[in-house]
Design brief:
The complex is a heterodimer of chains A (285) and B (317). Chain A is α/β, with parallel strands linked by helices. Chain A has helices spanning 36-41, 57-64, 91-102, 136-152, 170-189, 204-207, 230-237, 248-253, 263-277; strands at residues 24-26, 33-35, 70-73, 77-79, 108-115, 118-125, 156-162, 194-202, 216-219, 259-260. Chain A starts with 23 loop residues before the first strand and ends in an 8-residue tail after the last helix. The chains are: A alpha/beta (285), B alpha/beta (317).
């Protein structure tokens, strides 16, 4: 007789002792494990279930830019604490700790490079930096990315993953919605293509500004995309939300996405689309 | 009259005065000096309380149930108001009201979030929380104004865009996003005034202006203090601290260079004297209309985009 009885059958005790730490990765949706190298070769998507592991700007840039090569711009824009904001922790400390832990300076990175031999500006958010929240730096870096795309006539891709605006910069965060949308209006007037790629999760002020303003709004499968968070909606309406509510598939069905693309097919599909609209997609290519 | 918790000393005194007033005539003459003294005391008390309002007290005033709403201001300031309805796609959102009107013979398009006054009208107006069709109606009206070369005035007063199932299904985020983009390049002047609650994207969705003002006792922030408390402190109990931390008062926003000025309210708040509050709002609108009326369409757009491009706070290494 044992003192403790395991109730759930699918609990993994630990990774086998002879395997180096972190080589086997557990897939949250299935509980199965997959080898790290296999994952990396498949753009951090589980080959069996199609589960998309959360990844950040580093991985997206390596997937989309040719040979993973790009030049970073706007990285000299750095965050400060304009409101001297304190909640349980001072914002200044939060910034420092997050920078140290993530190796990032804020929640978006902008790269300029080639995708299938064609110039492109890619701005990618990082959820690992304070929930991918949009503060002044995210807005300003995106503003510079949009300006760069407009001046050089390079297509723009913004990859979103965010809980929304950054509370610790309050109304200044809110105004980044206005800034990015205004800059996108100019980009549209210049007829430079803009693809908005939404990944899990894209919510709040990010969805209600640049993420929904693409010439093409596209998303990874099964990403949570919405304005209000599901918890808030459930509290407001006082009933459970339908299965699949606010997923990519739901948004596609309701007419807010052009298509859903899985990560391994992303580079090919986005390049093909940009080539066609830029009249570069000859039959021989 | 509804009193807020911090107005209790005023309420107590006013109650005492009305009690004294209710006493019959013979004694009343004797009591007259006492009543006068108490009246003076009420004025002093009100001045001292309202000179030192906390951020949370401003939030309470902005939500005061007797506060003038969009249509109160429209009917007070405008003549010839023709309300226009519907987004031409889904329906007519009662949480946003708007239409053409004149102010001192000048044609304007005036649009704002509209709250209700009692249980029935509050529900009818969805507590001033617009659905996507509200934002789309507002944009349709603004495009009409652009077509007929009429300046746009927007009045902000919402606890937020409605967080509902159908709102998401019909694209709440997309509706707001499109408004932000289209308003930034609208070819007529836009003047925006926060008259009550400026809650996040739901307010900003009709709030991209060449000039932006706040009434004295209003708030404007990325999130309501209660929700901020819930997320950052994991409890609803820190709403007062959150209100202070969020720097959401008119004075804060002026210092952060997000707004262009503060419109003074009557002592005790806009609800104490609708006419005086509306007159102050009208004075500011007329000044702004005159100033912006001199700018060409392209200058207006440049000025607006430039204004928002500068917003935020960062260091450049």
């Amino acid at each position: 007789m044992s003192w403790f009885k395991r109730k759930d059958s699918n609990i993994q005790t630990e990774t086998p002792k002879d395997m180096p730490e972190g080589v086997w990765v557990k897939v949250p949706s299935t509980g199965e494990t997959v080898h790290r190298r296999e994952l990396e070769e498949n753009c951090w998507v589980d080959p069996t279930s199609g589960y998309h592991f959360p990844i950040g700007s580093k991985q997206y840039f390596s997937i989309l830019f040719d040979d993973g090569e790009f030049k970073e711009i706007a990285n000299d824009i750095l965050p400060e604490d304009p409101l001297n904001f304190h909640d349980r922790k001072p914002y200044k400390d939060r910034l420092e700790q997050t920078q140290k832990k993530s190796g990032l300076t804020d929640a978006v990175k902008v790269g300029v490079g080639k995708m299938k031999k064609s110039d492109v500006v890619i701005a990618c958010m990082d959820f690992s930096f304070i929930g991918g929240s949009m503060g002044s730096v995210v807005g300003e870096r995106l503003g510079r990315a949009i300006d760069h795309a407009r001046e050089k006539k390079f297509p723009l891709i913004i990859i979103s993953q965010s809980g929304g605006a950054r509370m610790m910069e309050s109304v200044l965060s809110l105004m980044q919605m206005a800034k990015t949308s205004a800059k996108l209006a100019l980009l549209a007037e210049a007829k430079v293509p803009y693809i908005s790629l939404m990944t899990n999760p894209t919510t709040g002020g990010v969805t209600a500004s640049y993420a929904m303003l693409g010439d093409f709004n596209v998303a990874e499968p099964e990403a949570l995309i919405g304005f209000a968070g599901p918890r808030v909606i459930r509290q407001t309406i006082g009933r459970d939300l339908p299965e699949g509510f606010q997923t990519s598939e739901y948004l596609l069905e309701h007419g807010f996405l052009d298509f859903i693309v899985s990560r391994p097919k992303m580079k090919h599909k986005l390049s093909k689309l940009l080539a066609v609209i830029q009249h570069k997609a000859g039959a021989k290519k | 009259m509804n009193y807020l918790d911090f107005e209790k000393p005023i309420a107590d005194l006013e109650k005492k005065i009305s009690e004294l007033n209710a006493i019959g005539t013979p004694q009343r003459d004797v009591l007259k000096p006492e009543i006068e003294r108490l009246r003076g005391r009420v004025d002093e008390l009100r001045s001292s309380i309202f000179e030192n309002l906390t951020a949370w007290q401003r939030v309470q005033l902005a939500r005061h149930p007797d506060r003038p709403y969009t249509l109160d201001y429209i009917y007070n300031i405008c003549e010839n108001f023709v309300e226009l309805h519907g987004d031409r796609t889904f329906g007519d959102d009662k949480a946003i009201a708007g239409g053409f009107a004149t102010i001192d013979d000048k044609s304007v398009m005036i649009i704002g979030q509209q709250k209700g006054r009692d249980t029935k009208t509050r529900q009818y107006r969805n507590f001033g929380m617009p659905n996507p069709e509200g934002y789309r109606k507002a944009l349709r009206l603004m495009k009409l104004a652009e077509k007929f070369n009429v300046p746009v005035i927007t009045l902000l007063d919402t606890p937020g865009a409605f967080p509902g199932l159908e709102a998401e299904a019909r694209g709440q985020a997309e509706a707001i996003a499109v408004n932000l983009r289209e308003m930034s390049v609208l070819k007529v002047p836009i003047i925006t005034v926060v008259i009550g609650e400026g809650a996040s994207g739901g307010a900003l969705g009709i709030g991209i202006g060449n000039e932006v003002y706040m009434m004295e006792n209003t708030w404007y922030s990325v999130i309501a203090p209660e929700s901020c408390s819930q997320i950052l402190w994991k409890t609803w109990d820190y709403k007062e601290q959150a209100a202070t931390a969020l720097k959401l008062t008119a004075k804060d926003l002026l210092e952060l260079k997000v707004i262009d000025g503060i419109i003074k309210e009557p002592l005790g708040g806009a609800h104490r004297d609708y006419d005086q509050a509306a007159a102050a709002l009208k004075k500011q609108l007329m000044e702004s209309l005159k100033r912006l009326g001199k700018l060409s369409a392209s200058k207006l757009v440049d000025q607006r985009i430039d204004k928002y491009s500068k917003m935020g706070s960062w260091v450049e290494a």
